[in-house]
Design a protein that fits this description.
73% of the residues lie in helices and 0% in strands.
């Protein structure tokens, strides 16, 4: 394991800031320094300023918050399950949250967004709990069995969700939650993600406990840690964060799998030391993918879910082959 100099963390933060500034000026509408500071007759705010404040700035903040939160959720879930190939979209967590969102749209369509997120969180928590219960009954002869179980569970939940959605004419909404997309993010439609930022802060405060819990029940108990309570706290954080992101912008696949694995190559398994890097790299990767999606077929754009699906699946395969190569 290699170590990174302390100065690299501020440099990485500056890099994320530069990506964020770039994100503010990428898009169809003309938002440039000339358009922003050219002035308008009568002092009324011009179109460029409105686009910046109402669309571009909220979108950029949403990208940073969602990327950091989902990457940290992946790290936390990997610690709790003790498997490097697990994240919310390979453990049934995200699919369960989408099921909750669909049921709210079907049974209580007037429910406010926070209520929707609460129901989605409960469903995500139940789905993750079911995933863990199944793992206890399955002989885990290979680390790859764990994500396969999660993917199969997610497939069953997705099939059930889409069947109900098809019968109730909600399939378009479900497709929107399954594919992450930030193009509809506006001022007043992303603020739920600040809750995910707060939950990420809670995860950092309890990072040492999660690290110990990741060593196993016996080790945690011998060190005076209530393993069950720490597991419950971690699952609540993962479920609420996943639900908040899906309710705001949809699912971002593979992010929570790729980023923690890359960071662990240079930072190891200590969660307190790794978490800031995971959050920064998650935010940076989502920003970079979103900017690329806006530039590849400009003036149209590719949804972030598609971009992350392509890049994330390729990196996932690389990690699998790399692990098998070392095992051989």
């Amino acid at each position: 394991m290699k170590t990174l100099p302390i100065a690299t963390l501020p440099l990485a933060t500056v890099g994320i800031g530069l990506l964020a500034v770039w994100s503010l000026f990428v898009g169809v509408s003309d938002v440039s320094f000339a358009a922003l500071f050219g002035g308008t007759p009568g002092g009324a705010p011009d179109q460029a300023t409105q686009v910046l404040l109402v669309s571009r700035l909220p979108r950029t903040l949403a990208l940073i918050l969602a990327g950091a939160a989902m990457a940290v959720s992946g790290l936390l879930l990997q610690m709790l399950v003790r498997n490097r190939f697990v994240e919310p979209s390979t453990a049934g967590t995200a699919e369960s949250a989408i099921f909750g969102m669909m049921m709210v749209s079907l049974l209580a369509p007037e429910m406010p967004v926070f209520g929707r997120m609460a129901v989605a969180s409960l469903c995500a928590l139940a789905g993750t709990g079911l995933f863990l219960a199944i793992l206890r009954q399955v002989p885990l002869r290979s680390p790859l069995v764990v994500p396969l179980v999660g993917i199969m569970l997610g497939g069953v939940i997705t099939a059930m969700t889409e069947f109900i959605a098809y019968r109730q004419d909600l399939i378009q909404s479900v497709r929107g939650w399954e594919t992450g997309d930030f193009s509809a993010i506006l001022l007043g439609r992303y603020e739920l993600l600040w809750l995910s930022a707060a939950l990420t802060g809670v995860a950092y405060l309890a990072a040492d406990r999660f690290t110990v819990a990741g060593m196993g029940r016996d080790v945690a108990t011998n060190l005076g840690i209530d393993h069950r309570k720490v597991m419950a706290l971690g699952l609540v954080i993962v479920s609420m964060t996943t639900a908040a992101v899906i309710a705001t912008c949809g699912m971002i696949p593979f992010l929570g799998l790729i980023v923690p694995n890359v960071v662990s190559l240079v930072r190891g398994d200590n969660m307190r030391g790794s978490l800031p890097w995971v959050a920064l790299m998650g935010a940076g990767l989502v920003l970079a993918c979103d900017i690329a999606g806006r530039l590849v077929i400009h003036p149209y754009e590719i949804p972030i879910g598609t971009m992350m699906g392509v890049i994330g699946s390729a990196l996932f395969l690389y990690l699998l082959l790399r692990r098998n190569g070392h095992a051989g």
